[in-house]
Amino acid sequence: MTDAAAPSRPAEPEYPDHIDAAVLKVALVVVLGAIMSILDITVVSVALPTFREEFDASLATVAWTMTAYTLALATVIPMTGWAADRFGTKRLYLVALLLFTAGSALCALADSVGMLILFRVLQGLGGGMLMPLGMAMMTRAAGPKRMGRLMAILGVPMLLGPISGPILGGWLIDIASWHWIFLINLPLGAIAIAAAAAILPKDEPHPSERFDLFGMLLLSPGLALLLFGVSSIAESGEGASFGPRVWVSATAGIVLIVAFVLYSFKPAHPLVDLRLFRNKRLTVATITMFIFMVAFMGAGLLFPSYYLQVRGESTLHAGLLVAPQGLGAMLMMPLAGVLADRVPIGRTAPFGLVAMAVGLLGFTQLEADTSYWLLSGALFVMGLGQGMTMMPIMTSALKTLSHADAARGSTLLNIIQQVGGSVGTAVLSVVLTTQLGKGDSVPLAGGESLSEAELAIAATMDPGLATALELPRELVASGLDAAAGAFGSTFGVALALVLVTLVPVAFLPRRREEDEAADADGDVAPVLMH
Prior knowledge:
Layout: H1 21-42, H2 48-55, H3 59-62, H4 64-87, H5 89-109, H6 113-142, H7 147-175, H8 180-183, H9 185-199, H10 213-231, H11 244-263, H12 280-309, H13 315-321, H14 323-342, H15 345-363, H16 372-398, H17 403-436, E1 441-443, E2 449-451, H18 452-461, H19 463-468, H20 473-505
Antiparallel strand pairs: 1-2
């Protein structure tokens, strides 16, 4: 879990070639935790309009229920390796499960959007530790020669999350209430905690290098303030507004992040080792991953919102309608894994990005009655592109690192991935809110006014509103056309980002190179340690 093993640690044990029962039991515990963590990234996506109505908040505000969660994941990833060495992997894994389960219970009890965002942070702190700790335990149990086969097992929640998350979230909201998308984690958490306590082998703490507390105090608040400032641009729901809340928060965040970058080259073991950017392939992969995640996660926020707000679908139907994207990824990821071992990433990743672009192109032409078959096909093609791009880029980058640098490189890429997702959800929600606020305003009682698009969405979400306000059908119809156009323009921004990603991808290797992460026996170091 750390950059260098402590001298007192025992020698590596001999591992059999087959997958034995003990390893499968550890994998079962890890998959339980991973399913909980990954599901809660996607399950909330269909609940955003519900949160918006329940808490009377803007889309940019309720998007923070996703942004805060992913930001908490990024915050806790760097310290996980240090904490596991300091307190023991099994003990920390149980703490992570308890944090996640407790955070889920508190989310269900939230009575304001601010409380919900706060409790999502707590949930994310626990969820962020589950995957890296799980990978560490599987590596320890299986050894490097069997990690490829076990990665297929751990890939199950990664594949099921994009498919089942929106469907499960929509179903629970339809038959019960939004509270149940969090309450469902309580029995799952209890089972996972009991299984982890009974199955996971006990390990002793091995304190290693000092934790970079100062770096943590610079980077984490810096990221939070920057994203808060970006998300606040359109929180009023009346278009872009660059007030003090925006520029003060964003400026403070940028200053803290720059301070961290300058500071991070001084300590021997910084929170995030930016010295790894000396590796050209890792640098290119990191830039590619960041831009890709901004586009992918930002667009992912909008797909269910279009179905819910413009088409008036139920949350369950919205979840089912976005499932083709997950199906595409599920079909492509196993093939992409095989190709990643045989074909240089520079020859395959462009095809994945082109598939993403083709899929998004269909969403840039949205209308209020666009065929669901066309949109489902576009989502499926996007899923194929996602499966061909994301994990192969990360794996290819880490293969160029030495054994000692592999864990730190994985930490860096995981943080970039999470922060990119947070930036994407914040930026594209701002773009959408601004686009929806354009056009002619319709005055309402009390001196308030809404754009035609905003008023049509409100009438779609609450059918009784059109009757109460005596809105003409023609006004609602033209407003829905304007709203669909606003979504299409926002998807156009995501499409532009995907096309920009083709620039760094052009610098990825197009011929086979020796993997630097192999040990003396030719075994490649595990990739997702943190």
